[in-house]
Amino acid sequence: MKAGRKTPRAKAAQKADQFTRIFAAFGEPMRLRIMELLPKEPNCMEMYNVVELAAELGLSQPTVSHHLKMLHKAGLVKSRRQCNSVYFYIDVSAVEKWLRDAQRRLM
Questions:
Q1: Is position 2 within any domain?
Q2: Separation of alpha carbons 96 and 75, rounded Å
Q3: Better-predicted residue by pLDDT, 85 or 107
Q4: Is residue 42 in a domain?
Q5: How many other β-carbons are positioned within 10 Å of the β-carbon of residue 103?
Q6: What is the pLDDT of residue 83?
Q7: Domains identified in the chain, total number
Q8: CATH number of the domain within which 100 lies
Q9: Long-range contacts for 31-35 (Cβ within 8 Å, ≥24 apart)?
Q10: First vs last Cα of the chain: how many Å apart?
Q11: What is d(CA 91, CA 76) in angstroms, rounded to the nearest whole number?
Q12: What are the pLDDT digits (tens) for 18-72?
């Protein structure tokens, strides 16, 4: 096998890791609340930055940053830099893909 090429077993393991990362991200109620607040597309008027989310949720900025990091790492949230801030929104296609995968695995 060529170097850098993944075996079918390695690809399946990577998909399983991503699947469980998303479950872990959704396992925290505050992350679900953040997902409810974030827009489904990068619309400037609807996106939040960390400061705005912290104020909306009544949490500290580091706590919100941690939750956003977990959601981003799971591939559920995207970000866009505008001026001096980073704004967040939901990656709808990733969420839809995960839901189809969850249905396929669990049904």
A1: no
A2: 11
A3: 85
A4: yes
A5: 9
A6: 78
A7: 1
A8: 1.10.10.10
A9: 31/67, 31/70, 31/71, 33/57, 34/64, 34/67, 34/68, 34/71, 35/71, 35/76, 35/77, 35/90
A10: 35
A11: 5
A12: 778 888 888 899 999 999 999 998 887 888 999 999 999 999 999 999 999 999 9
Confidence band of 104 (pLDDT split at 50, 70, 90): confident
Q: Is residue 3 in some structural domain?
A: no
Residue holding tokens 């077993």?
9
Residue 68's domain comprises 8-106
Q: For position 46, what pLDDT does the model report? A: 86
In a domain, 23, yes or no: yes
CA-closest candidate to residue 66, choices 17, 95, 30: 30
- Cβ of 73: how many Cβ atoms within 10 Å? 14
Here the tokens at position 54 are: 């912290």
Number of H helices, E strands in the chain: 5, 2
Supply φ then ψ for residue 82, to 5 degrees. Answer: -135, 125
pLDDT of residue 63: 97
